[in-house]
Design brief:
Elements (H helix, E strand, L loop, with lengths): L9 H11 L5 E2 L2 H4 L16 E3 L4 H14 L3 E4 L16 E4 L6 E5 L4 E4 L5 H8 L4 E2 L12 H7 L6 H4 L6 E7 L5 E5 L10 H5 L8 E8 L1 E2 L3 E9 L2 H13 L6 E6 H11 L10 E9 L1 H18 L3 E5 L2 H12 L1 H8 L2 E4 L2 E2 L5 H15 L3 E6 L4 E8 L6 H18 L24 H14 L14 H4 L4 H9 L10
Length: 494
Amino acid sequence: MTGDGPRIDWPRLQRRLLNLLPPRTVVAARQELLAYDCDGLSLHRHQPPLVVLPETTEQVAAVVKLCADNGVPFVARGSGTGLSGGAVAESEALVIATSRMRSILKVDLPNRQVVVQPGVINSWVTRAVAGEGFYYAPDPSSQVVCSIGGNVAENSGGVHCLKYGVTSNHVLGLEVVLPDGSVTQLGGNLAEMPELDLRGVFIGSEGTLGIATAITLRLLQAPQSVAVLLADFTAMEQAGEAVRLVTAAGVLPAGMEIMDNFTINAVDDLFGRDEYPRDAAAVLLIELDGQEREVAAAVALTSSLCHQAGARTIRQASEAADRALLWKGRKSAFAAVGRITPTYYVQDGVVPRGALPGVLAAIECLSRQFNLPVANVFHAGDGNLHPLILYKADEPGVNERVQQLGAEILRLCLEAGGSITGEHGVGSDKRCYLDWMFSADDLATMQLVRRAFDPDALANPGKIFPTPASCGESSRRQAVLRQQGSNHTGAELF
Ligand SMILES: Cc1cc2nc3c(=O)[nH]c(=O)nc-3n(C[C@H](O)[C@H](O)[C@H](O)COP(=O)(O)OP(=O)(O)OC[C@H]3O[C@@H](n4cnc5c(N)ncnc54)[C@H](O)[C@@H]3O)c2cc1C
């Protein structure tokens, strides 16, 4: 099946898929398969043997059933913007891409819901309902390209998730093709369903429990008033202190994001204008929304707290176009850094808000120690860091150094009481660190849940869970277990 398992007769599988699917939905040409060899994280590359592009739930179900009957592993793929290697077929597996499943199936404004196919692009949902005064809240910075199916699988967050919650708070129901090819419904179109919350189990499962083929999303009414503040600081600690003061005062902004000096300059260079003050050590973007009077009061209080923390200047944008301009830089930060360096590695760790200044200072030390520049841009309100490690891919041995630095950053996050991922998932990139957070018993329990959906482990094999094969015998996992004095490795379920 995978690794040392029985080999798959791919030419035969291709013939059977051609019989199952409409013309031009099976990709087998080497040059075309190149487009599927990685996701947004270019460190891990593996070209799949075959890719299919189904258009309907029935076609997905037929393909998955064929896989189940023949022991063929499969990997769901949305837009391929993931940042943990989740959509990459690293062992021999069929890639099932949803890029032809891009219909909005139903718009139900009275009940504030839409039903979409999984390949629908995140920003299309808001675009479809904005005219009626509604929007879809989860807004990853990649929202103009990433798919709703990918968002569900990663439980994606975004700028507005501080106030409104992540994807799982906005998905009511899911139609899912299970790994045996059967189709089932998880959740529904009601806020509460009288059943085990399998919808919640599926969201964030990174393609390991099946393929979502239709998704019912909750819509929100656009707020009456919105203001964005841009505060700039001469020290990162001051920006962190502003975040602390604002939240301690009971203000709940829609979003609170910080960019460091490196990122500010990268973004200003990208757009060829000085939108953000180039000499600032950090800028803090704060969005406040609600009723007009409520927003006016929050703007006044937040501004005074930012000044108290040491803000040099505070700019306010209330018109939609000005607000969009302030956010444009933040949302283009990764692309802006990508213009400066041919390659970068985005880390994704979480720390309690209060630990932000200390952890950022420690990251700076690590950056010097590893001799690799690190740019910082992050969801400050929820302590979700995205250090971008800049490197030149052609430098010998650099991949290992980058991964070591990434791991050290995650270690810092854990020591500060945080997590190894905030929103980009575990995928293949972080599976060897999962046991830094969870005991062998925890991991074995997660595997029991997974096997209840997928007894043969055909759906996105090798992702999320550490295995001796992927993490090595000398894995940190064994070391941690020894430290914990446990004899139980949990390996019997892998
Ligand atoms: C510039 C940039 C900015 C980003 N900003 C953010 C951000 O602010 N917040 C954030 O959370 N993420 C962010 N991301 C990461 C990424 O965009 C998200 O993880 C996104 O949800 C991935 O969607 P996708 O369609 O590209 O999924 P893919 O990369 O194609 O797949 C991701 C995972 O989902 C699984 N999958 C895909 N479709 C399905 C399906 N229908 N059913 C079951 N499993 C499926 C895949 O198997 C894989 O494990 C960013 C990425 C980039 C490149």
